[in-house]
Amino acid sequence: MDTPRRHPLELTTPRRRLKTAPAVSLFRPEIVLATSITAAPARRAVVLAEPGTRPEALRTRLGTAHSMLARLDDARHTFGAAASDARTRADEASSTRERVSATIAAYRAEAALDDVLTGAWRQVSALMEERGLR
Length: 134
What we know:
- The chain is an all-alpha fold.
- It has helices spanning 55-92, 96-131.
């Protein structure tokens, strides 16, 4: 049952090219030229920590630092006087009970001063971070 084929089978590649889209398409924006160019108004450059450019911020920071140092100095005088008074009482105490009580009072005054110093350190650290010094 051999039947003749009407079209012979060709094994060659086709002669016409297939149209395919490129794998990458480039973005080609249209260039538009301005008819007139106006320069932006000149502004002074702000330099970090330059007090001349923002005096109100400097006054605020100086006021904060000044009040913090004044509070720290007052606390030092108050707790220092309390601690020295307690030590004097401990030295002049006639009984062991009075001596222990005075020593505990001195330790409490020193602990209160330590708390004030810790709070002041936190505030100073916050000011330094705000200024970018840390």
